[in-house]
Amino acid sequence: MIRRRRKIPLTVDDIMTTPPLVVSPDENVVKVAKKMLEHEYGSALVTEEDKLVGIITEHDLLYALSEGENGIKLKARDIMTEDPITVKTKTDIMEAIRVMKDANVRHLPVVDERGRPVGVVAFRDILESLLLLIHFFYC
């Protein structure tokens, strides 16, 4: 029996969304939500001195909204996921998928060698790239 090991020839750099939406820890969650809506992003990266310190996703904004009047007074630092899992630009797509699956996340910040955010890979980005590959090979 012949077994072939197939590899998708893509890296995170090929499919990530750039530039990432970056906000400060002290930014009001309403402003963060408006920016995400305006730019059609599903997440915002929270930075201090160009270093990634957190991520805010649509789910986090729902949490803030569920707090009612108190929720709209929250800051990015209050709802962000601190020290998010990240990948580098040359990370293989299959590795990024494994990381997302293992961590149960849909948004994966991409950082450079210095830890500065350069993009985000969302589950949607991966799905779109795989659909393009299927279309390319079978259509």
UniProtKB/TrEMBL annotation:
<keyword id="KW-0418">Kinase</keyword>
<dbReference type="InterPro" id="IPR000644">
    <property type="entry name" value="CBS_dom"/>
</dbReference>
<dbReference type="Pfam" id="PF00571">
    <property type="entry name" value="CBS"/>
</dbReference>
<keyword id="KW-0808">Transferase</keyword>
<keyword id="KW-0129">CBS domain</keyword>
<dbReference type="InterPro" id="IPR051257">
    <property type="entry name" value="Diverse_CBS-Domain"/>
</dbReference>
<dbReference type="InterPro" id="IPR046342">
    <property type="entry name" value="CBS_dom_sf"/>
</dbReference>
<dbReference type="GO" id="GO:0016301">
    <property type="term" value="F:kinase activity"/>
</dbReference>
<feature type="domain" description="CBS">
    <location>
        <begin position="16"/>
        <end position="74"/>
    </location>
</feature>
<feature type="domain" description="CBS">
    <location>
        <begin position="80"/>
        <end position="137"/>
    </location>
</feature>
<protein>
    <submittedName>
        <fullName>Histidine kinase</fullName>
    </submittedName>
</protein>
